[in-house]
Specification:
five-stranded mixed sheet; binds nicotinamide-adenine-dinucleotide; about 260 residues; Rossmann fold; Dihydrodipicolinate Reductase, domain 2; six-stranded parallel sheet; alpha/beta; 11 strands
């Protein structure tokens, strides 16, 4: 049944949180209660209340918590929020590549009336992928292409001199489980693809360092009973965080607004 109002608390108060707050400010059906931040961020400029403890956030009695902070926040807060019976939207989905954490989150939700909601984030086509899974899928692959230096720091390119890559080079080919561990910066999209489709072990991931590309691009391909689908994305980064695609906040917003909309699409 459609909710009359959603009382929203955020975990994290960065680029994604800022965009969500700006977008819902005119929506009378969504109220922002505040954000849970790191203790050192408590004195940051903010139009809404900030707290640094889960207990203080739960005291606001939100009916939806949106995590937009990072993998450590999923680790620290997901299970207790769900155990308190509060729906939780997780955007740092790569954290769920950790099987133990995934099971812990699933159990916490199953043991309460709360739901875990996983938005499409930076990806398009997740709706079709989930629908195709129900119909029957045989193959799912994700190819991510970024400028060489965008892969810097990942354990998967240790020892690779990225500055010397002068033509497109496949730096990883394997499954989503290995990809999430070796390339944590790509973990969110790989994990979203895996969870929406055929799982971490069967999802193929190909990562390419390409000096010719300016934007991060992803190609999601899936094949099965309903046919062959190929979706290509070249997203624009968020104005406040170049590592985050602009689309991410809007995919969260879409799911928040669906809770209170008379027509859902
Ligand atoms: N699913 C996707 O496709 C996708 C796409 C982009 C980003 N993300 C995820 O969203 C997260 C947030 O993105 P952003 O652009 O808003 O980042 P950001 O760096 O602008 O903001 C995140 C804020 O959360 C804070 N934070 C970190 N850990 C915290 C914790 N344990 N408790 C409270 N606050 C904490 C940070 O200090 C920072 O202020 C990223 O870390 C990434 O994991 C997911």
């Amino acid at each position: 049944m459609r909710q009359q109002e959603t009382r929203l608390a955020l975990i994290g108060n960065g680029a994604i949180a800022g965009e969500i707050i700006r977008c819902v400010s005119g929506n009378d059906s969504v109220s922002i209660l505040g954000a849970l931040v790191l203790p050192e961020e408590l004195d940051m400029l903010s139009d809404h209340p900030l707290v640094s403890s889960l207990k203080d956030m739960l005291a606001w009695k939100p009916d939806l918590v949106v995590e937009c902070a990072g993998h450590s926040a999923v680790n620290d807060y997901a299970a207790p929020v769900l155990a308190a019976g509060i729906d939780l939207m997780i955007i740092s989905i790569g954290a769920l590549a950790d099987k133990e954490l995934y099971n812990q989150v699933k159990e916490a939700a199953s043991g309460s009336s709360a739901q875990v909601i996983l938005p499409a984030g930076a990806l398009a086509g997740v709706d079709g992928l989930v629908a195709a899974r129900r119909a029957g899928l045989t193959r799912v692959s994700l190819t991510s292409r970024k400028p060489p230096l965008a892969w810097a720091g990942a354990p998967g390119v240790e020892g690779v001199v990225l500055e010397e890559i002068c033509e497109e080079t496949v730096i990883f080919f394997g499954n989503a489980e290995q990809a999430a561990l070796m390339f944590p910066k790509n973990a969110n999209v790989a994990a979203t693809t895996a969870l929406a489709g055929i799982g971490f072990e069967k999802t193929q991931v190909r990562l390419i360092a390409d000096p010719a590309v300016k934007r991060n691009t992803h190609v999601l391909e899936f094949e099965g009973k309903p046919g062959l689908y190929k979706i290509e994305m070249a997203g624009i980064p968020s104005a406040d965080n170049p590592k985050t695609s602009m689309l991410t906040a809007y995919n969260i917003l879409r799911m928040i607004e669906q809770r209170v909309s008379a027509i859902v699409i």
